[in-house]
Amino acid sequence: METLVAGTVCHRIGRDRWVTGVQTAKAPERIASELRRATRMDGD
Questions:
Q1: How far apart are CA 20 and CA 18, in angstroms?
Q2: Could you cite one Gene Ontology molecular function of this protein (predicted)?
Q3: What pLDDT does residue 39 have?
Q4: Within a domain: residue 34?
Q5: Domain membership flag for residue 23
Q6: What stretches of 1-44 show up as alpha helix (H) in DSSP?
Q7: CB-facing half-sphere around the CA of 42: CA atoms within 13 A
Q8: Which backbone phi and psi does 40 adopt, to 5 degrees?
């Protein structure tokens, strides 16, 4: 395996954002960081 990604996260979903808070990770620079993504939901 050339690439390994591992960790635990906590998700928050807002009106137009999906935020992933990184709690633990194989890569130390990712710990306590947040990954933010724009999102849109349509329909029910």
A1: 7
A2: nucleotidyltransferase activity
A3: 87
A4: yes
A5: yes
A6: none
A7: 0
A8: -145, 135
Closest C-alpha among 39, 34, 31, 32 to residue 13: 39
**HSE-up of residue 20 (Cα within 13 Å, Cβ side):** 12
* Both tokens assigned to 7: 């960790």
pLDDT of 24 reads: 85
Q: How high is the pLDDT of residue 1?
A: 52
Domain coverage including residue 28:
7-38
Number of domain units in the chain: 1
**Main-chain dihedrals φ then ψ at residue 29, nearest 5 degrees:** -70, -15
Is residue 1, in this structure, part of any structural domain at all?
Answer: no
Cα separation, 25 vs 40, in Å, equals: 28
**pLDDT tens-digit readout, 6-44:** 778 888 888 888 898 888 888 888 888 888 999 887 887
pTM for the full model? 0.59
